[in-house]
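Researcher: Predict the fold of Alginate O-acetyltransferase AlgJ.
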Amino acid sequence: MRRASLTTRIYAGAMIGLVVLFSAVGLAASAFRQAAVGGENRMFAQLPGWPRSLAEWESFPQRFDDYFNDHFGLRKLLLRLNTNINALMLGRLPSDRVILGRDDWLFYAGEESLELYANKRPLSGAQLDDARDSLTRRVGRAKQLGAAYVLIIAPDKHSIYPEHMPRFPTRRGGPSQLDQLLAVARPAGLPVVDPRPALLQGKADGLVYYKDDTHWTDWGAYLGYRALMAALPLPEVPIVQLDRRQFSVPGEMKGGLADMANLPWVEQTRKVDPAASRCDVTRTPFERLSPNLSIARTHCAGAKYKVIYIGDSFSDWIMPYLSQSFGEIVHIARSGFTPWRDLQPTIDREAPDLIIEELVERHVSSIADARESE
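Model: Structure tokens for Alginate O-acetyltransferase AlgJ follow.
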């Protein structure tokens, strides 16, 4: 039998040693409960109890294997090492809800976002009619309360930074869903605010969206706020006046997309200087109204008008500016789809002067949802 060369034996010994070392350290970390399991957005397997039936005996090996795999001591380190190698060397990510763009930009791929970016999901004529009718009903109901209504669409990041998207998918010509909505809303005099022009212009002065998150930055939210304020029909509303130089406070942002992709990336940001505030805003904590709705309030002494603001997570960035412009804001935070009829009782009870609704661009089609019918 031919003996292996010295180089081969050294290499094999080193590999065996590494396997033993990683296994030993991993088991030790597991024993001392040092394994971190966050960032995967799922429930982890629990240690199975002693089997008490034949069925439990049959499933015990798989359940214990699931537990061991989830709680192995170096799990998080190895997962992140694998993610970094795939992202930086192969351009791939372990989550199908995140794609890696050019210059290490991350983009959301869930909720048909890539199809919407590629203009492969145009709204039908019937959907556009339904959307126009839904907005008309909202405006009409607001008038009955003596209030005005405005809808603002927070653009998807790829609409503002298409140059950082990967070379796929190929973008078709033709209007986006937001373009289609504006084409039917504006001739009908329906108040839909499109902040894309302000954001596209403002990105020359600084990032308006985070590289590792879906949301706009403090600077981007301020530009959205200014576009919204310019469209409001109320007189004598004070506007927070800022320029780019006042967004100078250094900070860090652990983006939701980076977390979703299990990447340890932390983004350096510039936040607005708190000294730029025009009034001392008081805020109440959120209270749960339903599984998809929460409510909070802000007050700004000396400012006029009561506003109901209905929005998603983009609200977290724009609310600091809006809260300085109005006497009271009733902030209704919603997640998922909430039919307008479920919001109407709260709106009627609060009797606002103005109703602001915010939707992210990828949810534009929800305005035309059949469940909006009353």
